[in-house]
Specification:
It is a single chain. The chain has 171 residues and is mostly beta strands. The chain is 13% helix and 48% strand. It contains 2 helices and 13 strands, in the order E-E-H-E-E-E-H-E-E-E-E-E-E-E-E. The longest helix has 18 residues, at 65-82. The termini are far apart. 12% of the residues are buried.
Length: 171
Amino acid sequence: IWMDEICHPNNRKTQISNTNKLIRFYEGCEGGKTGYTNEAGHCLVASAKRQNMRLVSVVISAVDSKTRFKEISSMFNYGFANYVNKLIIDNNKPLELSVEVDGGKKDSVLVKAERPVYLFMKKNEKRSVDIDFLPNKNDNVKNSSSVVMEAKKKDFFDYSVELFSGAKYDF
């Protein structure tokens, strides 16, 4: 158990305690929920985030409370040591792609993804990723378009993201 103290604006103090040691001692731990029943034993579900990768781990039927924290820590350590979220599309940079503009002062504009796109994979693993622009039938800068990604390996990765121009244009 670790204790902390909250000081309120009126100088009143509140003491709080937490039995989840991961919150205080595991780098990146965001939270968790402990539990115990006779049937399930000591249980814990927890999440941890480092840089752009969040992991969730679950332990059921640990023999004691200390073991459940140790097991979750081991799973997090393994995940952060062996896996990475690789940035595939950076939403802060225009794609090497232009979209035709209907009735605008420009014939086409460069587009950006609305959010970054990551691929969860083993560290040092090489994957080729093909990115295709698949416009809708009557697509132009006023309508939305999608980028569809596919990882070429034994598995199939299919992901869509909306595109936008990232700049203001007069029409």
